[in-house]
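Re: beginner question about structure tokens

> Can someone show what the tokenized structure looks like for a real chain? I only ever see the sequence side.

Sure, here's an example I had lying around. Input first:
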Amino acid sequence: MEITPIGTFYGDAVYKYDAPRQGRLFAGHPGRIVLNPGRNFEMALRDLEGFERIWVIFQFHENGGWRPTTRPPVPPKGKDRVGTFASRSPYRPNPIGLSCVRLLKVDGLTLYVDESDLLNGTPVLDIKPYIPMADAFPDAKAGWVEEQVGDLWAVEMSEKFAEQNRWIAERSSFDLESFAQVQLSRGNFSKDVFDSSRRRLTIGENSKTGVLAYRTFRIHFSYDDVACKVVLESITSGYTPEELHSPEDKYGDKKIHKEFVDLYK
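And the corresponding structure tokens:
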């Protein structure tokens, strides 16, 4: 069996930890699917623009191997892992993903979409229209998902965080607030307040504070596990003073970090 990508997805999420667990949580971050030329795809796209949503079949191009079980971000009560075929885990025997995204418009070979959970550069294998009459079963049972433990948390910003986030956003493509919303809006109460499998997250249970890493920046927050609320308090650089003064600049972002540190000492 030979499968050839028909195009590529381009969007904000570059690294795996940038991507939301569900695309609908990433509203307001438009991306685009650019189909390959020379294959008569212009004709294949005819009549698609009348659909509000489309199914995108794609390849998990940055994953290697698969696992028979997986640990969900919010596990069911009394369980730590579930079977891969009973999950949306990206680590599958065949690295094929399925995402229902909002279609904004079609322009030539480019489809503009929103509410996507695909990484930038993802190979797209096929596109199909979402048809509510055939695809929506709101009363269908959802297995262990109905037993998930955890509520949707409110994520708020302090004035300091909002100012720092705005300063960074004006000088880069980074969106720390959106990333924090995606990562911290769900709690896991199996052991820690938050999902302990997130390696870029550290929690101080006694102080009710935490630090979430976003690329080379660090998001500091406080939380109230009774009110299910997170407050994004401030942002700091992930570089040490010694690293900032080193000529090596692997990610090409030390200039903005130096300016940020000088401004927010």
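Each token stands for a local structural state, so reading them left to right follows the chain. The longest strand covers residues 96-107.
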